[in-house]
Write a structure and sequence with these properties.
The protein has about 525 residues and is an alpha+beta fold. It is about 25% helix and about 30% strand. It has 13 helices and 25 strands. The strands form 5 sheets. Strands 1, 2, 8, 9, 10, 11, 17 and 18 form an 8-stranded mixed beta sheet that branches. An 8-stranded mixed beta sheet has the order 6-5-13-14-15-12-16-19, with helices on both faces. A 4-stranded mixed beta sheet has the order 23-22-24-25. α7 packs antiparallel against α8.
Amino acid sequence: MTADAAAHVPVVIIGAGPVGVTAALLLARRGVRTLILERHRDVYPLPRAVATDDEVRRILQAAGVGEEFAAIARPANGLRLLDARHRVMAEFRRTEHGHHGYPQTSMFDQPALERLLRAALARHPECELRTGVEVVGIEQDGDGPVRVTYRDDEGVHPLWADAVLGCDGAGSLTRDTIGAAWEDLHFEERWTVIDVRTTAGVRSWEGVDQVCDPDRPATFMRIGEDRYRWEFRLGDAETPVRDLIAPWLPPSCEGDVEIVREAQYTFRARVADRWRSGRIFLLGDAAHLTPPFVGQGLCSGLRDAYNLTWKLTRVLRQGCDERLLDTYESERKPHARHVIRLAVAMGWAMTGGQDDAAALRRGLLAAACRIPGLAAVAGRDLSPPLAAGPLVRRRLRAGLVGTHCPQPWITAGARRTRLDELLGDSFILLTGTEPPPSLTALARGLGARVIPVTGLGDDGTLAAWLRAGRADAVLLRPDRVVADVVPAGGHEFTGTAAWAPLLHTTRTPCPALPAPRSKTAR
């Protein structure tokens, strides 16, 4: 096949892990065709990621798998820090009714998640998955279309894409292609991860335990009905698995322990110095690597997908300004770095380091954990407000700007649903009072729907949220981040409309393209 005859696909996604498939589902919801290229022929069968938070469950809801995920998820109580003798130093409780409408922490089995994501993918004619293929080249001429070359059993094939999403993991070819380098955040340790299935009475508080022992730091959690995970930092001498997990097992436990997986990993803390070149983007582990101590590795990748896909859709389908895509990295990188630093801090809390001041740091940690209210502060949402930027007009007293709108249940007639199902994918002007005509006109100019809180039929959550934020109205982005507010008693947004040109059509919007022929594997 010649280059001129190469097929064209609006978006090529490299990697069919949870991040890549979720990105495809979010784009399909908005009518954008995708082709996913994956080197493995099937879902990786062993567990890796095991925890998610309520914000990411909201993203899975947006991808259309919220109910299916609920069937495989298990709410967790939160996080405890234990000393070397397994005495509780601090407890960070998580509730079953978080800001986003889901349990603040849920445990799950990654292969089960990947299977339900792929099942959803098969229901969308906009999505095509080719497995057992290897991407061997990515080229871009300026900011124009991207040429992707992949190899399968039949040979080498070229493609042209309007955008490429590199969801191809820590060893990303996409990252190498755009010339991105790792920024080292100074954490690297070797750990062993042990997944076990047993019906024995394992000692568990239905949350995550972090054992702060410099000689043998460890993490323990219950994943499912009979599934458990332990993580131990590797020492100089090998220790049998049964001896490592014995403190959690009943003394009478004999033989009823199946080791599903034992693997060694190097936990690293890194962020790519650039996440975009033209129409090529990095997502997930291709863009950032975190130690697992706050359970945010996969979560960060799914946040990447949610942030980027609505912006990419507006550029590809509605002809919005290309500069809109610059906000992906500027919004996501600070949060990714924040989460990684939290994980590194937790790692240091667990190990205390190995220098002469280690004992002093552990003593200070134990004392700090006893400060009233500290556990509540530390247990708050892991997603702080977005920093000020083109799409986040932060101003004095605009406390809601950059935060997420809560998601209560809504009752409309005989129907009861979650808020986001009612709001759809557009910008929303959510009002607590009658908005002035100028504000309504601005909202409609952006394609935003105007929705009064009083007509939603919720339990008062949204009205209370507006009052607490001293706002009469908020402008919600498609990812439900507050872009701007109208202060109580005001008539205009607190910021300016400087970001509005990014959302205006600058050329004829792209028409919807015909769906590809069905082809799930090659």
